[in-house]
Input
Amino acid sequence: MKQTSITLNNGCRMPQFGLGVFLITGDEATRKVCLDAIRLGYRHIDTAHAYGNERGVGQAVSKSGLPREELWITSKLWPSEYGEGKTMAGIDKMLSRLDTDYIDLLLLHQQFGDYLGAWRDMERAVAAGKVRSIGLSNFESSRLEEVLEAAQTKPAVLQVECHPYYQQKALKQHIAPYGTVIESWYPLGHGDAGLLNEPLFGRLAQKYGKTNAQIILRWHIQEGNIVFPKTMNPKHLAENIDIFDFALTSEEMAEIGKLDKNQRYFTLNLEEQEAHLSQFIPAD
Ligand SMILES: NC(=O)c1ccc[n+]([C@@H]2O[C@H](COP(=O)([O-])OP(=O)(O)OC[C@H]3O[C@@H](n4cnc5c(N)ncnc54)[C@H](OP(=O)(O)O)[C@@H]3O)[C@@H](O)[C@H]2O)c1
Output
């Protein structure tokens, strides 16, 4: 089973598949699921300061016994940490929570606050060897243009909602000239039964001896998306990584392409997002 990787616009090779740990609460539970995942062959974990579980991720990395360079850690800064000078201090605290010398990929989690100041500090953190690659999450407004124009280092990735019902075709084309790659959040529609039970996925699952979720994850891989489904279920954990021994045909990829309904699960507009998110400040 050979997992695929993506070469980012700065030359770093990133495992295309990983584990997302959003909504996994507490260091112990996080450490356990990450260690189980690493034992199954996962080499990439997607966390965030706002998830409150970076320490558990760091503990799993230390306990895994693997050389640090064999694992890829992504984390994200919250707007309360944005600003030139302030962001560097936030990165130092993140390194300490993750108990690591460097972060493989660091993202701005949300498109609010002094994101341009934060980006300048992130570029300095790359120069200082604290961070390898930098990117954005949830920048889908004109603020994306602002960063793309101002950035000396163009974002390596853009992490956004992306799944067969919301395929992000236009955004993908828009960021391609910068070499920026889409990372899919809600890759399984956050577990939505409507998406998982699409008849097309059932038919393909039967053909390949796979589950519907595996067909969706395989579609992400062949679409060139970076993908990290979240699960705490041991059966799903093993199933989700078992997608590298088959390939969908170009006709099947095109059929899945037609399922795009421009349907998001997360529907707050920019003002609603700001009101909703500004209420939360993650603890150190
Ligand atoms: N940047 C952002 O703002 C942002 C936002 C959301 C998410 N994310 C990232 O994206 C990751 C994934 O997103 P997500 O967790 O919200 O959504 P998701 O991965 O699309 O869906 C997770 C749900 O799918 C279920 N599931 C997982 N594997 C399954 C399988 N093989 N068969 C059936 N059901 C399965 C899980 O339930 P069980 O636990 O029962 O398996 C869970 O309820 C997050 O963990 C996080 O790292 C980022």
Summary: The chain has one domain: 13-277. The radius of gyration is 18 Å. Strands lie at 5-7, 13-15, 19-20, 44-46, 72-77, 103-108, 131-137, 157-161, 181-185, 226-227. The CA atoms of residues 208 and 246 lie 7 Å apart.
